[in-house]
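Entry type: protein chain
Record version: 2
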Amino acid sequence: MEPLQWIARWSIAFALTQLVETPLYVYAQSVRTKTTAELLPSPDAVRPLRERIALAFIASAMTHPLLWFVFWPLASSAFSYSTTVFLGEALVMFIEGSLFVVFGLPRPYVWAILVNTASVIVGLVVRELFGFP
């Protein structure tokens, strides 16, 4: 595949990923637990929406290029498509979960698994229907 085609497909996949993952991570940051109550100034406090959107966007913005431009070229030559997707998403879930540990998201790895699983399902359905990304 030509580099420009690869970048075009990445752009579509990135936009789709953000459409799926950002709202889910924004919601996840709205969930209150004892842990988040201790980290935020008052029991009723939730990070401002702007911050929640930024953190949600940053998570995928960090991991998506890593998956497509670093992990995928290295792993896809050694593993099948399914195995490469599984290993890549496991890596992404770990990185995003770790990021949200730092920012005090309750159950960060559970949310990373749920959010990225939703994103993978949507991506696979779009791929099946349209042949890309």
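Comment: DSSP finds five helices and no strands in the chain.
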